[in-house]
Design brief:
Pfam families: Big_6, PPC
Protein name: Bacterial Ig domain-containing protein
Number of strands: 44
CATH topology of the largest domain: Jelly Rolls
Strand order of the largest sheet: 1-3-10-5-8
Largest sheet: 5 strands, mixed
Oligomer: single chain
Shape: rod-shaped
Number of domains: 5
Keywords: Signal
Distance between the termini: 182 Å
Number of helices: 1
CATH architecture of the largest domain: Sandwich
Length: about 575
């Protein structure tokens, strides 16, 4: 035998002496088993390739450990198709005295995989391979990589274990939400980086998305999210980021909301009736429900007291006129939560009609709210419309009480009265409005004879003003005008202060049982004996009156008065019984 052959045999004996005697040498058809180390060697100075197969019994993590004494060699982990590279390492500078190590892991589905060892250049030498397998013990059922193949995820808090592997880029779970309510999601990721999505029923619209990174076996990353969802089907998608793989867990809890808003109610045509003077209405703004609209009706003008209590971080509340677009009031209610709901109250003075309340999502904020409306009818006398000179409502100078109402849609009330003769007239105005303007206008309905800005009034503390004016015969107007956005009730009295002339009394005999004469038309005529009222009657339109009395003794002195409708009493007319 030649000297060179002896040298080759001797070198091979030295190589294999580095490995334990219990290990088995490999060939190109050998099957690798877990937890057993095998050895192999590249011996020829040609393009030599060694191939091994191994079977993964269940999805899990496979650790690959390689030691190489070859100056340079290529190591591959291949997918079951034998062509797709799952991992590759160009391991160089290995030697007998200092073998080079390659230690890696792969998250693999169940199946048969390959390891290839390929010569690099003319380098030869020994190597060893060892595989270990850690089952994922997951419950995801492959394939579950689309909404059509989605795996059901219960909503009772059961933990679902899953695995993103080399060949499994996506896992999709289906959430069947039986009723509107809050779904609390929790995920733990042992993956360096992974994407989490919650999708709407169409399987494409993203409700929320999370890029969860820096997860590991030692320090899994946690993600939680609470979503307010309507009844329906939703999807939870776990998606590979880059080449990162590993285990994860997810769970979902559903808490129904005890609401009574009837979807869809997101516009005026679909608005839901809100009953006044009734219990609170519970509503829900969810991921797919941006707007709730309610309708309430006022049979008469009156005050509506609105109350909203919000558990939403921020939400918009609108009160709309009958057209469904004109804003009567708006509130941006923020910092609400389940633990500390925020409250909004508003009182509005409205005319009879239909109105709407719109609750609108702000940003992505969702949650529960309640609405309540209490209504108190206004029992007034102003006849709408009476907001111009031509439509002015007639009132008498008789101290007649007129109750009026300035509302959101009623800025002006006009009244007209007639002064029959020159004399003083008294305006008596009482306001329950925070601020309002009252005018006395001349016959043209424009010229101001008197103006008062009445302010700081309320239902609890009305404010009263009294003004006397000397007026000539003619027609005049009282105008009550809104100031700013202030609304509410008021009352008005107009009174003529000139007393009637003393009645003219006809002669009275002792046997007479009637007092007759003439007084101011329509005035009340009273007859007294001393301080005792003995008879009362009313003058007709011509001023004639007849008052029935008991017959009086001759020489008795009687006193007769005329009192007009405003309560002004004339001077006394005396008559002696004959």
């Amino acid at each position: 035998m030649k000297k060179s052959s002896w040298c080759l045999i001797l070198s091979l004996l030295l190589v294999f002496s580095l490995f334990p005697s219990s290990l088995v040498a490999a060939d190109s058809s050998q099957v690798l088993t877990f937890n057993n180390k095998i050895t192999g060697a590249i011996t020829n100075a040609g393009d030599e390739l060694h191939q091994y197969s191994f079977v993964v019994p269940s999805a899990g993590r496979v650790n690959v450990e390689v030691f190489s004494e070859i100056r340079e060699a290529l190591f591959y982990v291949m997918a079951p198709d034998g062509t797709t590279e799952l991992a590759k390492e160009d391991l160089y500078y290995g030697s007998e005295s200092e073998p080079k190590k390659w230690d890696t892991w792969l998250d693999l589905e169940a199946g048969t995989y390959l390891i290839k060892v390929k010569q690099y250049g003319k380098n030869t030498g020994a190597y060893s391979l060892k595989l270990t397998h850690t089952p994922a013990n997951g419950q995801d059922i492959e394939p579950n990589d689309s909404t059509d193949a989605a795996q059901p995820l219960n909503l009772k808090g059961t933990v679902q274990k899953g695995l993103i592997s080399e060949s499994d880029s996506v896992d999709v779970y289906r959430l069947d939400v039986p009723s509107a309510g809050r779904v609390d999601l929790e995920a733990f990721s042992y993956i360096r980086e992974v994407l989490l999505y919650v999708l709407d029923g169409d399987g494409t619209t993203e409700i929320t998305k999370q890029d969860l990174y820096y997860g590991s076996l030692d320090e899994p990353q946690k993600w939680t999210q609470s979503l307010d969802l309507e009844a329906g089907t939703y999807y939870f998608k776990v998606k590979k980021y880059g080449s990162n793989t590993g285990k994860y867990t997810i769970k979902a809890n559903h808490t129904p909301v005890k609401g009574n808003d009837a979807e869809p109610n997101n516009n005026t045509e679909q608005s839901q009736a809100l009953q006044t003077n009734n219990k609170a209405q519970t509503g829900y703004i969810s991921e797919s429900d941006d707007v709730d609209v309610y309708r309430f009706q006022l049979p008469k003008a009156g005050q509506i007291d609105l109350e909203a209590i919000s558990q939403i971080r921020e939400v918009l509340i609108y009160v709309l006129d009958a057209d469904g677009t004109t804003e009567i009031d708006k509130a941006d209610l923020y910092y609400g939560s389940d633990q500390e709901p925020k409250k909004w109250n508003e009182s509005l003075d409205l005319e009879a009609g239909t109105y709407f309340i719109k609750v609108k999502k702000y940003g992505s904020n969702t949650g529960k709210y309640t609405l309540k409306a209490n209504y108190k009818a206004y029992n007034g006398h102003d006849a709408e419309p009476n907001d111009t000179k031509e439509m002015a409502q007639s009132i008498q100078l008789t101290n007649q009480l007129v109750k009026g109402w300035i509302s959101w849609s009623d800025d002006v009330d006009m009244y007209k009265f007639t002064v029959p003769k020159t004399g003083p007239v008294q305006l008596d105005f009482t306001s329950q409005i925070n601020e309002v303007l009252v005018y006395l206008l001349a016959n043209d309905g424009v010229t101001e004879l008197y103006k008062n800005d009445v302010y700081y009034a309320s239902d609890d503390q009305p404010k009263k003003v009294v003004q006397k004016l000397q007026l000539k015969p003619g027609t005049y107007y009282v105008k009550v005008k809104k100031y700013g956005a202030n609304t509410g009730a008021y009352s008005l009295r107009m009174k003529e202060l000139t007393p009637p002339a003393a009645p003219k009394v006809n002669a009275l005999k002792s046997q007479s049982t009637k007092v007759t004469g003439k007084a101011e038309p329509s005035s009340t005529v009273t007859v007294y004996s001393g301080k005792t009222l003995i008879g009362k009657g009313t003058a007709n339109k011509s001023g004639n009156f007849t008052v029935s009395i008991k017959a009086q003794k001759a020489g008795k002195s009687l006193t007769v008065y005329a009192t007009d409708a405003a309560g002004n009493r004339s001077t006394a007319a005396k008559v002696i019984v004959k």
